Structure formats: structure tokens, C-alpha cells
Amino acid sequence: MATKAANPLDEEFAFDIGGPIATYWVAILRVITGWWFFHAGATKLIENGLAYTYGPIYMQGMEGTALGPLPVWMGNNLAWLIEPGVPVFETLIGLGIMFGVLTRLAAFGGAFFMTLFWVGNAGFGHGLVTGDLMGLLLMVTMAALAAGRYYGLDAVIERTRFVEQRPKLKYLLG
Fold first, then answer.
1. Could you tell me how far CA 116 lies from the centroid of its own chain?
2. Of these four, 37, 51, 116, 157, which has the most CB atoms within 10 Å of its CB?
3. In contact, 130 and 121? CB cutoff 8 Å
4. Above 70 in pLDDT, residue 1?
5. What mean pLDDT value characterizes the chain?
6. How far apart are CA 84 and CA 134, in angstroms?
7. Top-confidence residue, 96 or 50
8. Which pTM value belongs to this model?
9. Nearest to 98 by CA among 111, 86, 109, 107
């Protein structure tokens, strides 16, 4: 009978953020999250071009949400920006996250979108935890973990002389 419990994964398996399993997982999560946003934007571009009229209509219907009259005002007065902006920015955010380019900047944009979606869909009949909140958490995760540094192009860009001479750019990369 064995007196010492052995764990065969004790030394071979680690999920610290610098370990290989974690880096693979962050990269996979980044690509899937990026594809999700890219697909949403590209589909809108294919179907509606730069005239995504549902965006302003959606915002005009947000009158009873926690954001108050701001989205209604935006829907009424900024339709010229929202109609082309939603599909273009969703596409660019998706590409940035998917390829790991300006990942933190793209994730911030994605978090902004997901916040609007979460509050805008604020039925909350099944609680605060919705798919929109989960999307928001994915975007925050991409930014917090600097997901573009894991098999993304940000890792390459950060090693350039241009970025090394301007270290504050790393806040947008990663």
C-alpha cells in the first residue's frame, strides 16, 4: 500500500499565466472572440453596406435603460456616424483582436460596444448575467491579459525600435 499520494500532473501541468497551456488558451480565446466580433461586423457590411440603420433605431429604443437619455440622443442625432460606424468598428475590433494587433485598444472598443448592448438589452428578467455581460467580460479579459502578446502580432510590434522608443504605446498593444 502506498503511503504517499502521487499526482502525475504535479510537475508537468501548470496553468500559470506564463505557462504554455495558459498562453495557448489565451491565444485561442483571443481568436474566437475576435472572430465573433469580425463576423458580426462583416455580416452587417455584406448585408447593409455602410447603411446599418438598425443601430440608430436600437439606440432610440434605449430610453428606459440605466444610460438614460444619452443613447436616445445619440440615436436621434448621430445616425450619420452610427450607421457606418457599427459595422466598420465591429469588423476592425474583430480583426484587431483576432490577429492580436492593437489588442488593448480593440478590446476597449469591444468593451464599449458590449456595455451598450448589455445595458441596452436591459430586460434583466433572468438576472444581470447575460450573454452581453459575458462578451463584456471577454473584452476586459483580452485587455487585462494583454492577449495580443500570446501568438499575436502585438508581440512582434512591441519589439520594434519604434515602440521601444515610445514605451507608452504598449498600453494600446498587448
1. 13
2. 37
3. yes
4. no
5. 85
6. 25
7. 96
8. 0.82
9. 107
What's the pLDDT tens digit per position in 27-40?
999 999 999 999 99
In this structure, what C-alpha cell is assigned to residue 153? Answer: 502580432
What are the cell numbers at 143?
485587455
What per-residue confidence (pLDDT) applies to 62?
79
Contact 169, 144 (CB under 8 A): no
DSSP secondary structure, 127-148, as one string: -S--HHHHHHHHHHHHHHTTGG
Cell numbers placing 14 = 501548470
Cell numbers at residue 32, please? 474566437
- In the predicted model, what is the mean pLDDT of residues 139-154? 93
Residue for cell digits 450607421?
Answer: 83
Radius of gyration for the alpha carbons in the chain, expressed in angstroms and rounded: 20
**Ramachandran angles phi, psi of 130, nearest 5°:** -125, 175
Q: Within 10 Å of residue 130's Cβ, how many Cβ atoms?
A: 17
C-alpha cell at 148: 495580443
State how far Cα 18 lies from the chain centre. 21
Nearest to 141 by CA among 25, 12, 59: 25
